[in-house]
């Protein structure tokens, strides 16, 4: 209301100023009667003086009151015109009275829903108390006006009789709002704590990933360095010994290449990046035998044997050769890591009417039923008594699932603790009814 009164006052001051300037433009030299008519047009103007720029001595003065015009409620204002300056005195209370119609338009008056007026609003001289304060049998709020009427204000008063009870009672409403605010604060604190805890777990997992990767890289690098130094200094090595060292170096280079590819895939997952797949004609039989023969030396160095069961009738498929090879190698690597005394691995290639199926079986420690639904989650590692001693960061199966999904297929798992696991990669068969392969890696899961 105070802002609306201020706007009304400024509008009225601008109106009288514009009125004089329009009158002045029609006159050659404003006279007493002109100034008198101007102040008579506004009942709140008390007196005025016109000072021409070219001859200040010929100023014109007019007044409504015969008495002095220095009353405390009289204020002075001036404005420049095209030919001079007008300075006038006015009655502030009369000027405010002209704006009283703004107060009568308050929403609490004459409400259409039939409610009685609850707030008593009026214009008053400002007091030292401004804003909200308790006054007598109710509460008051005083908002001061802006200059030139800074000595006045708008006062609203509400009696406590209008406060009501129950749900209409502001105290009850305040208590409920406070309770809701505290509840929301508690929920926000809990969510913030959970977010910080999750972030801390992610940091710990990344730290474990870095430690595992460092350990994994150190071993092949050490073996490569040792083999290279032996070859360099071993002038008395036999041809057979030299061949064995070269095979060992090559084996560790292949292992190192596999590790680096996995690390790069993990980096892409963590940065929400995708990798375009290069789909080319691939013979699944040739792909499986190539991967196994390439890494056979490394597999045998771990004490494992690989048995192949390949359906010779599997036709040519459109796959990304490197991606599928990496998925198969990850499954073989997992079978090696999670096997105990029975160190045998079986790789099966067959087909159904709709899929080409690539399966890796082991006779290892198996996976508990409660862990099966989480094994493809990033960083998840099934809990065993020796989990911490088995290398890995829980990302191999996540990469396998993404590779198969990017080909439009899916992964199936059968496992029983103590009896081993079987991972089946089901790729859409060329000419089958399964989904068409996509052209890029599926994006990393939202868990990242």
Strand order of the largest sheet: 10-12-13-15-14
- Which value, in Å, is the CA radius of gyration? 45 Å
Number of helices: 11
Question: Which segments are poorly predicted (pLDDT under 50) over 5 or more consecutive residues?
Answer: 108-116, 385-389, 433-448
Percent helix among the residues? 40-55%
The percent range for strand residues is 15-25%
What is the global morphology?
Answer: elongated
* Major β-sheet profile: 5 strands, mixed
Keywords:
single chain; 448 residues; four-stranded antiparallel sheet; alpha+beta; 22% strand
Characterise this structure.
The protein is an alpha+beta fold and 448 residues long. The protein contains eleven helices and 15 strands. It has helices spanning 2-25, 32-40, 92-98, 100-103, 170-233, 239-270, 284-294, 296-301, 321-337, 369-372, 396-406; strands spanning 45-52, 60-63, 74-80, 84-91, 119-125, 131-135, 138-144, 152-159, 280-282, 305-310, 317-319, 344-351, 355-362, 410-416, 420-428.
